[in-house]
Amino acid sequence: MILAFVGDIPLFHKILAALLTGALAIIVANPTDLVKVRLQAEGKLPAGVPRRYSGAVDAYFTIVRQEGVGALWTGLGPNVARNAIINAAELASYDQVKETILKIPGFMDNIFTHLLAGLGAGFFAVCIGSPVDVVKSRMMGDSTYKNTFDCFIKTLKYEGFLAFYKGFLPNFGRLGSWNVIMFLVLEQAKNIFRV
């Protein structure tokens, strides 16, 4: 038996569902994210400095061999926070932005409105999630931090508040386009399966 909810879902429920799914998803995906961050960090090494990994598969095996299986979940705390926060920001803001746009005279529930709402959701996700994203990446790429709080404080102290928004435009380009595509597909799926 399939249970279906008919009607508007309260914003609080949307945020809670997005937080939970974002957290659960990254618990599974953390090893892959860790390998990605470490390989990216290696790409910044000067010429002549030996690389720790020859590729992604080698990175998994090397991390497990040298640091243990648990090391694949390095940075899990900030990564769970990042993914949960960004998920919640995307899903909750999309509906709110769309509702706001539809109140503007001349706007209709069409692809252009979904495109604007998707970009808005991506913008909010980057604004809200970028500080946690920066801390997560630094924790995964540099083992000198004691914990998440230490990383946050050192970044703020030595680089200032704007350090948490480094890479804002490329991040918005990635999340903005992701949200546009995701929500356009979801809206079209809703229309196809509407009874």
UniProtKB/TrEMBL annotation:
The keyword Membrane applies. Pfam families: Mito_carr. Its main location: membrane. One of its GO terms (cellular component) is membrane. Solcar repeats lie at residues 9-100, 109-192. It is found in: Membrane. Keywords: Membrane, Repeat, Transmembrane, Transmembrane helix, Transport. Belongs to the mitochondrial carrier (TC 2.A.29) family. It is a multi-pass membrane protein. This is Uncharacterized protein. InterPro entries: MCP_dom_sf (IPR023395), MCP_transmembrane (IPR018108), Mito_Metabolite_Transporter (IPR050391). It comes from the Eukaryota. It comes from Prunus persica (Peach). The chain crosses the membrane at residues 12-29, 111-132.
